[in-house]
Amino acid sequence: MKIIMLGAPGAGKGTQAKKIAAKYGIPHISTGDIFRANIKNGTELGKKAKTYMDQGLLVPDELVVDLVVDRVNQDDCKNGYVLDGFPRTIPQAEALTEALEKMGQKVDFAIDVNVPDENIVKRMGGRRACVTCGATYHMVYAPTKKEGICDTCGGELILRDDDKPETVQKRLNVYHDQTQPLIDYYTSQGILRTVDGTVDIDDVFRAITEFLGA
Ligand code: AP5
Predict the structure, then answer these.
(1) What pTM, to 2 d.p., does this model score?
(2) Looking only at Cα atoms, what is the longest distance across the chain?
(3) Does the annotation count 160 as an active-site position?
């Protein structure tokens, strides 16, 4: 089961991708998480990615494509995976299609989590991420048991640098310009389902599992 998550920044791709990964026993591959781990570890890739991410821009395709193609070739991806945040441009989607074709594979499902821009701006201000393990919460919709402390590892929770309102607006513009065309790309392959991302987290997940057929 090879699944792609599409949707605006903050639409809930990561939240749903984690639930899908747990239910179907497949890896959750988030390019945003990979970049944030590289930034935390001070790698060359992290340094390069940070300059784009802090401005709300996409990291150039050439820094992303090989990284993802290598990752989906690893052993734990044999039974599938859920890609969260990749592809994000038509060239990335084409590179993925081509790489999978070479392995005799294809994407099975593309899920578009649809949330209007005005909801996104409000939602992002309440998101909190753990500095230690990267787990994500929401102050209202997905709160931790203890305020400011990660339920998973006890780490400190922060507002991501790119979740500040001015950067969120830029990320939304980039999404409409460069990522939204992927909805037509996967619709034309007959594998896309749009789900309403404005409803409760569990209801979004129900709509997704109905589509995935299990
Ligand atoms: P990335 O980390 O992928 O950010 P994003 O796509 O902007 O998505 P987010 O992680 O912000 O949101 P999400 O949709 O996962 O929502 P979440 O589940 O957290 O990428 C960051 C940056 O890295 C990019 O801007 C770019 O620079 C770079 N990058 C990454 N991949 C790249 C690529 N392929 N090419 C080039 N550059 C790349 O939910 C958001 C909040 O809402 C949470 O607080 C959550 O608890 C809450 N929530 C979730 N669902 C609901 C619901 N149904 N109701 C109420 N609240 C909800």
Answers:
(1) 0.94
(2) 48
(3) yes
